[in-house]
Design goal:
This protein has 10 helices and no strands. With 227 residues, the protein is mainly alpha-helical. The protein has one domain (45-225). Helix 3 (51-71) packs across helix 10 (202-225) and helix 7 packs antiparallel against helix 8 (155-175). The N and C termini lie far apart (50 Å).
């Protein structure tokens, strides 16, 4: 463990470029994931997913965006006061801090592809899988969720990320398919990106979110009727 911490510090110092902080973080996570895959050799489970299953996973991820305000009342009230939907948004310290210089295009790429793949590979595929070898299912999910929430380094996002980590961990443990969690994670981040689009009229965002809720309601109702 001490060796891992020391190596972590060294890698972060090497790859921490002040003008490309997001790239540095992703590069460090990628290197660590590669090292742990080689040393620990965790059995990461993937499987094929039907198109309809993908659709349901996307809807689930977007639905989480509707539930986040209920779990974060402080942010909800703040955003209502600003005339915005109370959804989880990336930390303003990174988005709007002039000390950070990065490509907005890379940020979108990170939200929709790099982040979900690397984070789920590391926290669910590697950490949760290895913890499961020595701990109970419940303990491994909780611990990996704590690590996952700490990774987001923002108090508001940490709370939501911990709860999302519990859900992601449960789904992975239940279905044994990391690809499913990656898809849900991507759809959650897609909702974040959509909410951050300042050019999108406010009422369109309402239609988008509650349109997702309507679709989910129909799917659940139809499933119950088929029992």
């Amino acid at each position: 463990m001490l060796t891992t911490l020391m190596l972590s510090y060294i890698l972060v110092q090497i790859f921490y470029f002040k003008t490309t902080v997001l790239v540095s973080i992703d590069l460090s996570l990628l290197i660590f994931s590669g090292i742990l895959l080689w040393v620990w050799k965790p059995i990461i489970l993937f499987d094929k997913i039907s198109a309809f299953r993908v659709f349901k996973l996307i809807v689930l991820g977007l639905l989480l965006m509707l539930l986040f305000p209920l779990l974060n009342l402080v942010l909800l009230l703040k955003n209502i006061n600003l005339g915005q939907i109370g959804v989880m948004v990336p930390s303003s310290d990174i988005l709007f801090n002039e000390n950070f210089s990065f490509s907005k295009g890379y940020y979108c790429f990170k939200l929709l592809l790099i982040g979900p793949i690397l984070e789920e590979l590391f926290f669910r595929g590697i950490i949760q899988t290895k913890l499961r070898e020595k701990c109970s299912v419940k303990t491994s999910i909780i611990m990996s969720s704590i690590f996952f929430s700490a990774w987001h380094m923002d108090i508001e996002q940490c709370i939501i990320s911990f709860l999302a980590g519990l859900l992601f961990g449960y789904i992975y443990e239940k279905n044994k398919n990391l690809l499913e969690i990656i898809i849900v994670h991507i759809s959650v981040n897609l909702g974040v990106l959509f909410a951050l689009n300042e050019n999108m009229p406010f009422h369109f965002k309402y239609l988008f979110y509650y349109g997702v809720l309507l679709v989910l309601t129909i799917i659940i109702t139809n499933k119950i009727l088929k029992r």
